[in-house]
Design a protein that fits this description.
This protein is mainly alpha-helical. It has 7 helices and 2 strands, in the order H-H-E-H-H-H-H-H-E.
Length: 150
């Protein structure tokens, strides 16, 4: 049975790159600038006040950036590769059902890669456990009691 479509021939089959570009334009990945340690309101924090505590947090984070080496690009690249591989596998499986194995795999790979970039960028913008431990120790040495990060 032949299906009819009201779409022009050039719009019946297309690669989703414009849709992906539009999605990325509308929903850019932004770094969370407010991500940092949460301090327990102990007597030291009450004594020095919030402005001094924020200055001390900034100082500890600067020290951590100096001493803790990280490679956020590797996180993004790894997540992109995993996403592309998983997307190609799922797309290929779906494409084999519809008789378009190659197209399905290609579309799946692109979609998976985009998802991988978004996930990797999000993860790369968050401090590593070592970075957090460094900042927490620095703050404890100053008299604060870090209780978590958000």
């Amino acid at each position: 049975m032949k299906r009819s479509s009201s779409l022009p021939a050039e719009e019946k089959v297309h690669f989703p790159i414009p849709a992906i570009q539009e999605f990325c334009r509308r929903y850019p990945v932004r770094e969370r600038s407010a991500f940092g340690p949460v301090l327990y309101p102990n007597s030291y924090l009450k004594q020095v006040g919030e402005p001094q505590a924020q200055a001390d947090i900034a100082e500890c984070m600067t020290q951590a950036k100096t001493y803790v080496k990280s490679n956020p690009e590797a996180k993004v690249a790894g997540s992109t590769a995993v996403g592309a591989g998983a997307g190609a596998a799922v797309g290929g499986a779906m494409g084999s059902i519809t008789g378009h194995l190659g197209t399905g795999a290609a579309i799946g790979a692109v979609g998976g890669a985009v998802a991988g970039v978004i996930r990797g960028t999000s993860r790369a913008s968050q401090p590593s456990p070592v970075f957090k431990d460094f900042v927490n120790r620095c703050l404890r040495e100053k008299g604060y009691e870090p209780i978590g990060w958000e």
